[in-house]
Specification:
The chain has about 350 residues and is of the alpha/beta class. The chain is built from 14 helices and five strands. The longest helix is centred in the middle third of the chain and has 57 residues.
Amino acid sequence: MSEPSRGNIIAADDTPSSLRFLADILKAEGYEVRSAINGELALRAALAMPPDLMLLDINMPNMNGFEVCRHLKEQDKTRNVPVIFVSAMSDTLEKLKGFELGAVDYVTKPYQRGELLARVRTHVELHRLRQRLEEMVEERTRSLRKSEMKLRSALFDSISAIAATVEIRDPYTAGHQRRVAQLATAIAHELGLPEQMIEGLNLASVVHDVGKIKIPAEILSKPSRLTELEFAMIKQHPQVGYEILKEVDFPWPIAHFVWQHHERLDGSGYPQGLKGDAIHFEARILAVADVIESMSSHRPYRASLGVEAALAEIDGNSGVLYDPDAVRVALKLIRKDGFQFKHHETFDHH
Ligand SMILES: [Fe+2]
């Protein structure tokens, strides 16, 4: 970073006098010069410490300038080092070959000092600017990734904390939200949805019943059938969940996913009676996962209906109540791929 020199150059020429002449011009101009008397040495020097520029003679024994250039372009470390060929050959074909190999310029011997320096300066500067830019982009990407990861885990932590508040009051649905999240994200993966979208679906799933916080605990854990009034209270939970979450500025419309998780394709769901595409795809996936998990688990008012009953319900109403793609994939995951809920997973409340 704090390099005082104007640039680091490797010069290669098998004629000692030519090499010295070239090196002297560059040094006088303030460049740091490493001189190589043949191609191998030039290549080795470049790999040991990539320079800002290579000046290569073409005709050298064993490894000529073209070969050195080819090797440089093959290595990640030296791929971007600009190469200028310096040669007595003024043949156009030779020049073309040099450019094809990735050289940035070509200087014909004998050369004018000023012309040589002008070309050197341009390419050294360009190279350094590009490197600076690359470093800045890398640094920026690194810090973005770091803050993104921090943000992600902070998001997940706060969502989990919210989820835990409901589950403390309602031991019967403890773990329900997490298990729904497992299935919903598995369905989304199987459908090939983008990671970014799956993340939003996951967070929404983990808190989808947060609105139950407003329902009296004795209703939630009532071992007998609910009265109409009690059921009406339960039906408010998607709305309440929406109210709780809508002020949080998530990168996804999580509050809407929660609001819509009891909506059904044909408009028979609640609270808004939305139909088809008016329901977010995430909410439609969430609905399928929710129904399957709920029916397969024990509830205060009934024993588990069993996974098969749950699958029969969604299969029988595919395209009517439930999104057909989500249903198809859910059936495949459970019947063919052996998907299982992790039933021991509950929140830590300390
Ligand atoms: Fe719900």
